């Protein structure tokens, strides 16, 4: 199974022979490119032309983040899974207001179900979320419903935290430790969703709930939102309430960010949650949560071709 590589120091990615190395003033380390799903750079990293060529050959994307954990961009190898017929169907469903509205509604229902799954696992009162109806006559109205769901979710989520205070969501930059964790987690999940979407023939820039815009892969936002409660927020609750993440794991300037030690605690825990296996009720076998994102893409492709009506994931774990 391929695994992500997280780089938390400044340095250079270079190629020597058929091996990828990360090198800086602290030394040189080989990266097993054949078993790497993607590379995440949380500090400035230079890619040599040789490294880019090797990464392209192995179809390994590289994602870059700023110091607050916000996604800045990616080096994406030439698309390995391309289908003009899928992109055409995807565009047709985006341009047809009724078809788009159905898919967008499914995404919001999936988000709501994931929120409920997490909160019920903590035996929290989730009635405020249960009472929010998922209905709207446009994607913009459904985005408003999603905003309402997140507002209620944040309130309940904050009440479950034991060692940090969380009053409201803020960003760019995050003003406190919990918001910093959410920003890092959301960004990593977005890039993982992007990597999985690239394996399904779907075009990551043609979305249905979020409005497609330049300079972002908005379908990855659609998919990632479904999985945020049961991955990013589950990891934050676990690390904070068990005392594994503390104030000493953060730095401050105009905002709050992880220091290197904080990243070394948070990132493996998040990756472990994404690689966690759950018994799939239909497939009758264990699959990783990360693979569930790809299955979501496959389900949407079948819907686009009229093979099976799309129903978004309803988290059960």
Question: Can you describe this structure?
Answer:
The protein is of the alpha/beta class. The chain has 2 domains: 58 residues, CRISPR-associated endonuclease Cas1, N-terminal domain (Ribosomal Protein L15, Chain: K, domain 2), CATH 3.100.10.20; 221 residues, CRISPR-associated endonuclease Cas1, C-terminal domain (Four Helix Bundle (Hemerythrin (Met), subunit A)), CATH 1.20.120.920. 45% of the residues lie in helices and 16% in strands. It is globular. The two termini are 22 Å apart. The mean pLDDT is 94. This is CRISPR-associated endonuclease Cas1. One of its GO terms (biological process) is defense response to virus. Keywords: Antiviral defense, DNA-binding, Endonuclease, Hydrolase, Magnesium, Manganese, Metal-binding, Nuclease. Its EC number is 3.1.-.-.
Give the key terms.
317 residues; alpha/beta; Ribosomal Protein L15, Chain: K, domain 2; Four Helix Bundle (Hemerythrin (Met), subunit A); 2 domains; four-stranded mixed sheet; 12 strands; 45% helix
**CATH domain class name of the largest domain:** Mainly Alpha
- The percent range for strand residues is 15-25%
Radius of gyration: 20 Å
CATH architecture of the largest domain: Up-down Bundle
Mean pLDDT: 94
| Alpha-beta content class | alpha/beta
Order of helices and strands: EEEEEEHEEHHHHHHHEEHEEH
Biggest sheet architecture = 4 strands, mixed
Q: Judging from the principal axes of the Cα atoms, what is the shape?
A: globular
CATH homologous superfamily caption of the largest domain = CRISPR-associated endonuclease Cas1, C-terminal domain
Number of distinct helices: 10
Count of spatially separate domains: 2
Number of strands: 12
Low-confidence stretches: none
What topology, given as strand order, has the largest sheet?
1-5-7-8
Amino-to-carboxy terminus distance: 22 Å
Helix content: 40-55%
């Amino acid at each position: 199974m391929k695994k992500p590589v997280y780089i938390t120091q400044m340095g250079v990615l270079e190629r020597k022979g058929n091996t990828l190395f990360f090198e800086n003033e602290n030394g040189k380390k080989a990266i097993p490119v054949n078993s790497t799903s993607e590379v995440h750079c949380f500090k400035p990293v230079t890619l040599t032309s040789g490294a880019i060529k090797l990464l392209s050959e192995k179809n390994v994307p590289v994602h870059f983040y700023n110091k607050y954990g916000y996604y800045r961009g990616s080096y994406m190898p030439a698309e390995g899974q391309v289908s003009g017929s899928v992109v055409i169907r995807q565009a047709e469903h985006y341009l047809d207001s009724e078809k788009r509205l159905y898919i967008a509604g499914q995404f919001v229902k999936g988000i709501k179900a994931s929120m409920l799954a997490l909160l019920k696992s903590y035996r929290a009162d989730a009635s405020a979320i249960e009472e929010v109806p998922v209905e709207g006559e446009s994607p913009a109205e459904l985005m408003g419903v999603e905003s309402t769901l997140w507002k209620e979710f944040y309130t309940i989520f904050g009440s479950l935290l034991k060692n940090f205070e969380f009053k409201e969501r803020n960003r760019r930059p995050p003003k406190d430790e919990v918001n910093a964790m959410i920003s890092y987690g959301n960004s990593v999940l977005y890039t993982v969703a992007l990597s999985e979407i690239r394996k399904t023939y779907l075009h990551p820039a043609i979305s249905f709930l979020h409005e497609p815009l330049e300079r972002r892969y908005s379908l990855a936002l659609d998919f990632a939102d479904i999985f945020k409660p049961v991955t990013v927020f589950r990891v934050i609750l676990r690390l904070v309430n068990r005392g594994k993440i503390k104030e000493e794991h953060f730095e401050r300037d105009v905002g709050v960010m992880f220091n290197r030690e904080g990243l070394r605690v948070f990132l493996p825990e998040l990756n472990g949650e994404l690689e966690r296996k759950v018994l799939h009720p239909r497939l009758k076998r264990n699959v990783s949560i990360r693979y569930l994102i790809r299955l979501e893409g496959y389900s949407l492709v079948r819907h686009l071709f009229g093979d099976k009506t799309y129903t978004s994931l309803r988290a059960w774990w």
